Amino acid sequence: MCNTQQQMQHREYIVSTSLASNAEWIALIREGCTGNASSFQLRLSRLIARLRREKSPLTEVLSKGLAEAMSSRQSLSRDSAIFQPSLSPVDSDSNLPLTTVQFPVQMEHTPIWAPEVDSGLKTLVNEWKNAELLITAGLEPSRTILLSGPPGVGKTLAATFLANQLDLPLVTLNLAAAVNSLLGKTGNNLAKVLAHAQSQPCVLLLDEFDAFAKRRDDGQDIGELKRVVNVLLQAIDEWPATSLLVAATNHEELLDRAIFRRFDFWLRFPESTPEQITALLMQLGCDHGLAIKIAPTFAGGPLSDVSKLVTRAKRQVVLHKTTFEHAILDLAIPEYLNDDEVKKYLEIKKLKSEGKSLRDIGKALNIHASTVSRILRRISKED
């Protein structure tokens, strides 16, 4: 009975594996022998998906093997990236590198995004951190993501965040070097960058994506950039699960319509809100009172402007021996400095930072301690 069952299973195995054509197996072997790891992984993933549908006993073995190989390859890539950060393709005319590589990727501060953006990015990170589980189930983590929204709301920072969280090199396209006026050169340069990023685990950032992926019916554009769109479409369709492609644009209306449906993920970044600005200011060193005063001035604008404001204020503190509060108000809303109560508030904050009690501050400013407390409550709303 046991032998009969084994024979039946063996016949099922032969029938199941034969459903994958000889050409598929030959192509898979060829990719492995030539060292084309990205193509091998992509082709094997598709084969596993087919075998899973056919209930082949090979499915579990191949899935586990692929998951282990991907994990080992990512670790190897991370180690080698430390020693080989300059292996970037170059423009054949200018000899300029077509990418910049950052590894390890550091975050200066915790990003502050709109809730829907924060949730989307964390979902993507979770997929990648559980890639082996997905692959074993015949699935893959999202391989491509499109980020769109106004300037300065954190799209480039999102790519940095993803590379940081996934512990992968951040490879960024050098747009100035890639765009070439000679016929065919731009497409060739882009193809080099895409192939480079596909060859090893990384996060590839294509910033200002609309420069390449413009609508093909744009009558003002030259034929070369229209051909580039076809290069992009093919690359996105065939992007391996070992790398993450991140495209960012301020002008989604300029993108070719076919681009949108090719991406696994699409996150729209809304304009900044007063709440976001307040949180960022506090993270960068402002107290709550100053933050809520300044936030409305910057709401709807780039978050990057807020970071620049704080940096400029800190420079003034060093160079002009002023307080941070005075410096940032002077830069953000200088008219506030003419208000008598704001002036007292700044003096109070200075004395408070020196460790003075409310009673001592009142004596120094010739006002009652209760007035000191009232000014702090009214202006800072922190007590």
Short overview:
This protein is an alpha/beta fold and 383 residues long.
Description of the structure:
This protein has three domains: 2-75, no CATH class; 99-268, P-loop containing nucleotide triphosphate hydrolases (Rossmann fold, 3-Layer(aba) Sandwich); 274-380, no CATH class. Helix content is 58%, strand content 7%. The protein has helices spanning 2-18, 22-33, 37-53, 58-83, 115-129, 131-136, 155-166, 175-178, 185-198, 223-237, 257-260, 274-283, 288-298, 303-320, 324-332, 340-353, 358-365, 369-380; strands spanning 99-102, 144-148, 170-173, 203-206, 244-249, 265-268. The chain is elongated, with a radius of gyration of 28 Å. It starts with a helix and ends with a helix.
CATH-defined superfamily of the largest domain: P-loop containing nucleotide triphosphate hydrolases
The CATH architecture name of the largest domain reads 3-Layer(aba) Sandwich
Strand coverage percent: 5-15%
Label the overall shape.
elongated
User: Sheet bearing the most strands, described?
Assistant: 6 strands, mixed
Helix percentage: 55-70%
Structural class: alpha/beta
Say how many strands there are. Answer: 6
CATH class of the largest domain: Alpha Beta
What brief labels describe this structure?
18 helices; Rossmann fold; 58% helix; 3 domains; 7% strand; alpha/beta; 6 strands
What's the arrangement of secondary structure elements?
Blueprint: H1 2-18, H2 22-33, H3 37-53, H4 58-83, E1 99-102, H5 115-129, H6 131-136, E2 144-148, H7 155-166, E3 170-173, H8 175-178, H9 185-198, E4 203-206, H10 223-237, E5 244-249, H11 257-260, E6 265-268, H12 274-283, H13 288-298, H14 303-320, H15 324-332, H16 340-353, H17 358-365, H18 369-380
Parallel strand pairs: 2-5, 2-6, 3-4, 4-5
Antiparallel strand pairs: 1-3
Helix pairs in contact: 2-3, 3-4, 5-7, 9-10, 12-13, 12-14, 14-15, 16-18, 17-18
